[in-house]
Write a structure and sequence with these properties.
Length: 193
């Protein structure tokens, strides 16, 4: 029974993405992201939201696409990888909202780190993460800075190419600590303490 209820709820959330009402779309997408319900089947709907007029929906769609990526995966590129990469590159270059561009850049870093470009793209992944950090800092979006810090740390702490590099490991640990501090401060603020 519980599995049937979960499946029905998932289908209802997914159906919200096809609505015309922006609030319904945002509600469905936010819940899908929050409960980590993103799967490959959802990719076409997420890509359709990238040119949506509402920046909040574009940003949320990118956060959902980010969930499809294993931080340091060894998986083969999916048939949709090239479409995802192409659309994210376009968004990273041309979106008129900085937060959306920076999220697209970070997700490109995640995809690169996961091996979608093949081997020997470590510098490109690090560059994407650093660019997303710089943009989010510039616009003052602290939580997104922390997410980018965490993404950078997760990549370089596991990537074979960087395991023996003490300088980058030290920098990654420092960024992880900064991310943890930011997340903890925001959690305390939400809890009212």
């Amino acid at each position: 029974q519980d599995l049937d209820d979960q499946q029905r709820e998932w289908e209802e959330l997914r159906a919200l993405l096809d609505e015309q009402n922006m609030r319904l779309i945002h509600t469905g997408l936010a819940k899908i992201v929050a409960f980590r319900l993103v799967d490959e089947e959802l990719t076409p709907e997420l890509l359709e939201l990238l040119p949506h007029p509402a920046p909040a929906l574009r940003h949320e769609a990118i956060l959902a696409l980010e969930q499809l990526v294993d931080p340091v995966g060894e998986r083969e590129s999916s048939p949709q990888s090239s479409r995802i990469i192409s659309r994210l590159k376009g968004t990273a270059r041309a979106d008129d909202h900085e937060e959306v561009r920076a999220a697209a850049v970070r997700t490109l870093g995640e995809i690169t780190a996961a091996g979608a470009w093949g081997k020997n793209h470590e510098v490109k992944a690090v560059d994407y993460f650093m660019r997303s950090i710089a943009i989010f800092k510039e616009i003052g979006h602290e939580l997104e800075v922390a997410r980018s810090y965490r993404a950078f740390y997760e990549y370089v702490s596991r990537a074979e190419e960087y395991k023996e590099n003490p300088d980058i490991q030290r920098e990654a640990k420092k960024l992880r600590e900064m991310a943890t501090e930011i997340f903890d401060r925001h959690k305390r603020a939400l809890a009212g303490t």
